[in-house]
User: Fold aminodeoxychorismate synthase from Trema orientale.
Amino acid sequence: MSFTVHAPSSDCRYPYVDGLRCTDINLMMSRPSKRVDNAVVSNHEARKVVMSSNLIPRHLQGPFIRKKKLDERGQKLKFVRTLLIDNYDSYTYNIFQELSVINGVPPVVVKNDKWTLKDVYHYLYEENAFDNIVISPGPGSPTCSADIGICLQLLLECWDIPILGVCLGHQALGFVHGAKVVHASEPIHGRLSEIEHNGCRLFHDIPTGQNSGFKVVRYHSLIIDADSLPNELIPIAWTTSTDALSFLGTHKLDVIPDTSVDFLPTKGQFSCYDRVGRRKVLMGIMHSSRPHYGLQFHPESVATCYGRKIFKNFREITENYWQRLKPSFTNQTSFQFAAHMQMPNANKLMREGSGSMQLVNIGDDQLSKEASRSSQSVHDAENKSSFGMFNMVDLSHPNIGTKYLKLKWQKFDRLASEVGGARNIFYSFFGHHKAENTFWLDSSSTEKGRARFSFMGGKGGSLWKHVTFRLTDESDTTLKGGGYLTIEDAQGSTVEKFLEEGFLDFLKRELLLFRYDEEDYEGLPFEFLGGYIGYIGYNLKVECGVVSNRHKSRTPDACFFFADNFLAIDHCNGDVYIMSIHEGCTAPSWLEAMEQKLLTLEASVKRDTKEQTLKPLRSVSSKAGFLCDKSREDYIKDIEKCMEYIKDGESYELCLTTQLRKKIGDIDSLGLYLHLREKNPAPYAAWLNFSSENLSICCSSPERFLRLDKNGLLEAKPIKGTIARGTTLEEDEQLKLQLQYSEKDQAENLMIVDLLRNDLGRVCEPGSVHVPHLMDVESYSTVHTMVSTIRGKKRPDITAVDCVRAAFPGGSMTGAPKLRSMELLDSIEGSSRGIYSGSIGFFSYNQTFDLNIVIRTIVIHEGEASIGAGGAIVALSNSEDEYEEMILKTRAPAKAVMEFL
Assistant:
């Protein structure tokens, strides 16, 4: 039996349109208002105003008339060109990915404050560049002009363009026509609800009601008051009950409808009250005479069932609308516009065959030819909009300063186990002289395939250098990330210079200068071939979209070695590799010397752990432990402040952190690291010693931030959800199940998974971003954690540093939406996070990288040890529990310090 849905007539018919209805370009009068705590000081907050809810359209002077007659017949669209308005959300590019696949061409993404209404008219009605509009979710409220930007004007003026509003966009559709936006009875973020709908076209072939399989993810604190809906807005979807659901038991996503029942819903067939008389939540609306729709839930979420089907239905609504109203016009619009507007310099990329249009199967040679043509309108659009965040670089031609690198390497089968393992190798070769200027990316926990390789080395050959970067005074927001770079070379010479564009642009240019022969590393099973090893501090968020930093870091904002000589250890089979890169024909004499050292390293050098560890140079008599920057009471107050922001719709999740500190004097920091890795082994651990900065980093991180392999595959593995191990096997298993079934932890994890999908979606090929592992529970020596894996295929026009810039800082350390959340956290937290919450890892000269999240880490700087810790605050959080979780995360590193002292 076929599955059919009957839609109300109002969903199928729109009035015949001769020209555009004319209204005033100027938005309604507004009055200033503060909607958040006075403690929040940001450029974004400073320009917030509240709009009047009585929105009465006014008339423009002079109509905009369609260029083509609308009564000519024609074929359906071969592709659909969407203008995607981004309300500074962290899920917009999940919509982008879905629409890229469904529409046949990627949408054009424009921030809500980048275009004027005049720009919109030009591209919609003069260039005829778009077939529909999608308004993204976002933080805040549609009653605030800074939150909603141009979206209210679009909904008022563009009455003859199909529009779909998601979450904030849904609320905007209601608000602009006079409905009230109010607080929900409780904030719902990262939780699911079953949905019933009226069978309109947007829900065609989607089941409805309880146990139907139609479950959706919700991220909202505000809702449209259903009783305030004006006559022109029709409710089309509700929750089936007032209770939200957890993800567990909802693994079947985008399921096939149950066709065993002839389902024929009608507009009035469902009740707006649950069984006990409580008001259910309005989840969807549509305009009675305009092709405008709104959805309160998130169809783009990885856990929403039938999300892709909803977007397909919106495409069909768009096709049918234009087929009926202006069929010939749709076939003559400017196809190349959508292709060129995906990124800066797109015309050049299209001509050279490396643009985004190669990522979509258009299936029409003529259309592809049209896509390569440049037009003045495209150049104008590129100057007025922010379709991408990257300054694309021509990768095909050498640049001035190109370095031609050669790699030499040797492999020693199963040698690691014969000489005492990675620990003994590092200590024997690099542990002398306080291990100055040494590095060790240490996979000290390799079980279950979490990590396989370790890389270690010290001051190397002629290419070695130490790079240090410090941002300018963070109070000067006009500089936006510029800073001072210091480079020390192998001979000890130092050069200082100011980087106006910041560190990531410097690193990007450096990596693009390298030329190499891929045959040099054929047969190597790992990605790091030589290049930059070090860390990126949390404050480099100002180079990734954040306006400014409120707090200045005590440590450098980035520190890297350029490693030309190093060792790699394969923990899977114990193989040891010695690696050396050089320019030109210079013979790598280091290889011969290291080979001799390895061959003479006898098994007898294996000693007891305590014998390998140097004694502290100066003991600390005080037995006092670490002191927290925030008292218990203050931290709990901060948690409650976060929950207020969440209640007001400013954020879905806030990763609140603090620092613990202790004066430790001049100790053997390498010995401390060796002790830490023994007590708390981790797959993404690291040791870094920048001696000129009096800085050592002892990291036992279990979390990968982002990895790019040689095949262009990106992978992120965020952790959200942590619980202590049990003292018995039975208790341990119970605690593991408690974490797995925790509704709060599932919501935390789901929000960050959707955020990372968004971040990868900015730089990955359409349709390639996927989640092979969702909410797995992994066990470590002291904790169980909930881990997900997100992967995607990098676009060919994107560089390694572009990928990092799109996703840094890791979403598990910020919350969502990321930019607004970081603004709020900057106002709450009392000091800079510094290295904590940043990333440690490598950037190989062949454009691969692997970076962790800096957690479970001891930073030793100028005689002080600091440990950062925190947790995700969500609507379901309990203040006392959140404080205890923060303390739990400091337990292993703090205990290691106290034991070592």
In short: The chain has 25 helices and 36 strands. The mean pLDDT is 81. The domain at 82-246+273-323 is CATH 3.40.50.880 (Rossmann fold). The longest helix spans residues 879-900.
